[in-house]
Structure formats: structure tokens, C-alpha cells
Amino acid sequence: MTYKGYTGKVTDVDPDTGELYGEVANILGVITFVATTGPDLVREFHTSVDVHLDWCQRRGVEPVKPYSGKFQTRLPPALHKKAARAARQAGVSLNACVQSALQAAVADLAPAKAPAAKPLPAAAQSKARPRRVAAKGRKPSA
Predict the structure, then answer these.
(1) What is the pLDDT of residue 111?
(2) Is there a contact between 130 and 122 (Cβ–Cβ < 8 Å)?
(3) Which of 26, 31, 36, 93 yields a CA-CA distance of 20 to 30 A from 87?
(4) Contact between residue 4 and residue 49 where contact means Cβ atoms under 8 Å apart
(5) Which helix (H) or strand (E) holds 3?
(6) How far apart are CA 138 and CA 104, in angstroms?
(7) Cα(134)–Cα(47) distance, integer angstroms
(8) What is the three-class DSSP state of 95?
(9) Cα(24)–Cα(20) distance, rounded to whole angstroms?
């Protein structure tokens, strides 16, 4: 589901209560929502996004924006040529080659060198329901 450029996804279901837990995907930060029916979950997703955007506007801060999965980078022509040749020899696209190299570089940076993501302030969370966080396989606390 999408709303105002944000994508929401279901992250967990409580089999005892039927509650559906969701969060906004592809952002650095946490925006969550919870409901007991599909239509209510969509409404709560919209409310959470609206609360986040309102909170940012009132404080004059830039809202958390979703990552598109696209970025441009400039390379020296010689490196571009080498990367294209390496990809062709490996039988993959240049995009796949770059993804693989970036994945390896990011893995080398994790967690000792990369700063931890900061969660959004509680005020940015939906006011409609208290925030509940559940570990996989565990019932959330109220």
C-alpha cells in the first residue's frame, strides 16, 4: 500500500488477537501502525504518515523520505570501462555488478563503523494507537 510517496507493509500478525502490525518501508527511521482489519490498517498507515508529516512541518524539519532504490554516481571513465568489462565477462549487467560491489562494501562497514539509525521521536508516531513493538514469535505488550 502506498500513500503520499510512502510504502506501508505488514510486518507481523498476532494470531491470538488478530492484530496486524505494519511499518513504513524504505526509510531511515521508524513509522509504525497497528489495526485488527485490513481497511483499518490502511487507515492507520495513512494516519501515521500524516502525523509524521505534520510533526515535521510544525518543527520545521525535513520529513523522513523513502529511498527510491535509484541513485546516480560519477566514475572516472577508466573505472566505468573496467566495471562494464568485468560485468560483461561475468555475464551480468553493469547494474548487477555495481549492486554486488556495493553490497560487499556495505557489509564491510557494518556495525563497528556504521552509525546506528536514530528512531523518530515518539511524537512522530501515530496518536491513534499506542506504539507496540513485538519480537518475532512473541506477543506484543500493551
Answers:
(1) 64
(2) no
(3) 26
(4) yes
(5) strand 2-3
(6) 32
(7) 20
(8) helix
(9) 14
Residue with cell 507493509: 9
Set of cell numbers at residue 104: 560487499
Residue 35 β-bridge partners: 20
Cα–Cα distances in angstroms (integers) from residue 24 to residues 3, 20, 38, in the given order: 10, 14, 16
Q: What pLDDT score was predicted for residue 1?
A: 93
Nearest by Cα to 42 from 12, 5, 13, 8: 8
pLDDT score of 70: 82
C-alpha cell at 127: 496518536
Looking at residue 66, its pLDDT comes to 82
Cβ contacts of residue 5 below 8 Å, gap of 6+?
A: 65, 66
- Side-chain half-sphere exposure of 3, counting CA atoms within 13 A: 18
Four-residue CA torsion sign, 68, 70, 74, 75: positive
Structure confidence by residue, pLDDT tens digits, 16-65: 999 999 999 988 788 999 999 999 999 999 999 999 999 999 999 988 88
Residue 4 has pLDDT above 60, yes or no: yes
Taking only the tens place, the pLDDT of each residue in 84-132 is 999 999 999 998 889 888 888 888 876 655 455 555 444 444 443 444 4
